[in-house]
Amino acid sequence: MTRSLSAVESWGFGLTAHISWTALVPAIHAALGSQAIFVWIPAVIFGMLLNYQVKRLGMHFINVAGGTPNYATKLLQNYPGLARYAAIGYLLNWVSYLSVNTIVLRDLIKVNLEALGITCPDIFLDISFTLLPFIVAFSGTRALSILHLFFVIPAFTLLMTFCVQGLGWLAFSPVSPGFFPSSWSSLSFVDWAKWFFFVTYATYSCETASSFVADSRNPTQTLRFLDVAAWMMPPIFLGGSWVVMRLATNPNLKDNAFLNLAAASLPFWGRFTGVSVSFLLVAACLLGSATVVSNCPRILYQLALDNHISPVFSVVSRRGVFVPALTLTLVLCLIYLIWGDVARIVAVGNIGWFVSFMLLHLGLWLRRDRPEVLFPRISLAILLLEVVVLLVGGFAWGWLNFLIGLLFPISVMGIDAMIRRVNFPAFHPDWWMRRYRKRPVVIIKDSVILQVSILIFLLCSAVGVGWLFGVKLNKVATAGGENIFVVLLMSVAFVGVAIACWTSLPQVVAIASAIASLTQLQQLDLSNNQLTQMPEAIASLTQLQLL
Asked: For labeling, which of 234, 355, 421, 546 is most exposed (least CB within 10 Å)?
C-alpha cells in the first residue's frame, strides 16, 4: 500500500465518530432524561482507554491497515475463527452506519421538500445518497480524504462551539434554567445496560484514525492523534449531552435529532439555529458515509493479506482504489438498506460490533505479557462487564435482532468461503492484476465532449433547481428553505468532486505521472539493470505528448 495520505488527512477521519454524537444523543435523552449522563460517563472512560490501547497496538503494528479489527486479529492469531469473526463484526457495523446515514438524509430532505410542496421518491434518494460516497471512493483515496477534511473541520468546530457555548450559557446566563437539574430520575440496570450498549456505537469508534496508519506518510503523527481524539470525547459526549439534557426538555421533541438540537441551541444561537443544526446533521451523515467507504476497504484489504478472507480483496488499482473490497461494501450496504428501519439496522449492526470489542479485550488479556498490551487487567474487567451488557442490553433490544446480529458475521464468512471456491474470474486476484497491467494508451482526448456535456448539464440543472426553489419559496413562507439549501450545498460539493474525479482529475494525475517518468527517463543511463525501466518511461512520454 502506498503511503499517500498526509497526517492531517488521516486526522480528519478520526473526528467522524465525535460528530456522530448528534444522531445518538436524542434517542438516549428521550429515553432516560437526566440519567443519561450516567451512561455516557463510563462509556467515555472506556472509549478513552481504548484509544490509548489502540495507539500502543498501532505503534507495534505500524504497517497494518484497517486499524482496530486487524489489530484484534493479530492478538487472536492462535484463534483464527474468533479473529475473523471480530474483524467482520466490526466491519458490518461501519457498513450499517452508511445505511443509517442514507435514511436520515432521506427523511430530512423529504420533510423539507414537503414543506415546499415538492415530492421525491424514496428509492431515488436512497440510491443517490448510497452511491454518492462510492462514486468518489472508486476514483481514488486522496480526493475523498481532502473532501472529508474540507467539511470535517467546520463541522467539528461548530459542534465544539455548541458544547462550550451551551455550557457557558447554562453557567452564566441570567435566564439559564440552572446548570444542575433540580431532581434526578431513577435508572434500572437493564436500562443502563441497554443504552450503554447503544452509545458504544460512538464512544468505541473514536479510534478510526488508526485505520489509515498503513497509508499515512507520517504514521506516528497519525497515531498520536488518537490522544487528541480521546480528550475530545468528554467535552462533546459529556458536555454536549449535558446541554441537551438541560435545554431540550420538551417531551414533544421525542427522539428527533433536529428538534432536540435546535431546542438546545436556540437560546444562544438564536436565528442561526436552523441552518447551524442542519449543517451539523448533514455533515455527520455525509462525513460518516465518506469514512465508511474509506475505512471498510482497508479492513478487508488487510484481512485478505493475512489470509483471513479471499485474496481478491487485497487487490488495489494503480490509483489506490480497492475495487473488490468497495464492491463488497456496497453490496452489504444495500442489504442493510433493504430493511429501511433505522432502529433495527443499529440494533443488528451493534451486536457484532460489541462482540468484536469483547474479543479485542479478550485478546489483550490472552497476550497480557506482550509489550503492545497496555492495560491487561483493566481489559479483563471491561470484558467481564461487556459480557453482562451484551446479554442484558442486547436482549433488551429484541431477541430477534440479537440473533440476527450474532449470525450476520457468520453469514459474511460463508459468502467469503463461496468466493474462494467459485471458479468465476472476478473472484480471483489474477483477473484484476491482468486488467491493471494493461496501461491505458489512449488518453481521454475525446473526453472533452463528455466533460463539456457534463458541464452544460450541471449548469442547466443548477439554474433549473435554483429557479424552482425560488418559485416555491416565494409561494411558501417557511424556514425550511435554508435547511434544504444546506443539504443541497453539501450534496452538490460531493457530486462536483465525484464528477471531477471521473473527468478532469485523472488527466491531471496522468500528466504528473508522465512528467515524473519523463524526468526519470532523462536521468537514465542505459546500464543493463536500468533497461527494464525504458518501456514504461517511453509509454509515459508518449502519453504526455498525446495530452
From this structure: 421
13 neighbors 133 (Cβ within 8 angstroms) = no
Q: Is residue 498 within 8 Å of 139, Cβ to Cβ?
A: yes
Kindly report, residue by residue over 267-317, the tens digit of the pLDDT: 999 888 888 888 888 888 888 888 999 899 999 999 999 999 999 998 888
Whether 116 contacts 97, CB under 8 Å: no
Q: Of 101-110, 251-260, 439-448, which range is least confident? A: 439-448
* Residues whose CB falls within 8 Å of the CB of residue 342, separated by 6 or more in sequence, listed in order: 100, 103, 104
- Residue 216 is given by DSSP the state B
Contact 209, 131 (CB under 8 A): no
| Inter-axis angle of helices 189-203 and 342-366, nearest 10 | 80
Contact between 290 and 144 (Cβ < 8 Å): yes
The set of cell numbers assigned to 229 is 481524539
| Cell 434554567 found at | 177
Q: How far apart are CA 119 and CA 109, in angstroms?
A: 10
**What distance in Å separates the CA atoms of residue 68 and residue 55, rounded to the nearest whole number?**
9
Question: Using CA atoms in the order 234, 237, 238, 241, what is the torsion angle rounded to 10 degrees?
Answer: 160
Give percent of the chain with pLDDT exceeding 90.
35
Hey, how many other C-beta atoms are within 10 angstroms of the C-beta on 379? 23
The residues facing 5 across adjacent strands are: 216
Phi-psi region of 439 (alpha: psi -120 to 50; beta: other; left: phi over 0): beta
Q: What is the pTM of this model?
A: 0.85
106 near 114, Cβ under 8 Å?
no
Asked if 47 and 32 count as a contact pair (C-beta separation under 8 A), the reply is no
User: How many Cβ atoms from other residues are within 10 Å of residue 430's Cβ?
Assistant: 11
Q: What pLDDT does residue 227 have?
A: 93
| The three three-digit cell numbers of residue 536, written as one number | 514504461
DSSP helix/strand/coil, 547? coil
Residue type for 319, please?
R
Tens of pLDDT, residue by residue over 478-526, are 545 566 667 767 777 777 666 666 665 556 555 655 666 566 666 654 4
Give pLDDT tens digits for 491-504. 777 776 666 666 65
* Dist CA 30 CA 253 (whole Å): 8
Q: Provide the grid cell at 233.
A: 470525547
Contacts of residue 370, Cβ cutoff 8 Å, sequence gap at least 6 = none
361 or 130: whose pLDDT is higher?
A: 361
User: What's the rounded Cα separation, in Å, for the pair 68 and 90?
Assistant: 9
Do 330 and 322 touch, CB atoms closer than 8 A?
A: no
Three cell numbers, residue 255:
427522539
Radius of gyration of the chain (CA): 25
Q: What is the pLDDT of residue 450?
A: 54
* pLDDT over threshold 60, residue 421: yes
Give 390 or 547, the one with higher predicted confidence.
390
Spatial separation of the C-alpha atoms in residues 498 and 490, rounded to whole Å: 12
Residue type, 63: N
Which residues, including other chains, have CB under 8 Å from residue 447's CB and lie 6 or more apart? 503, 507
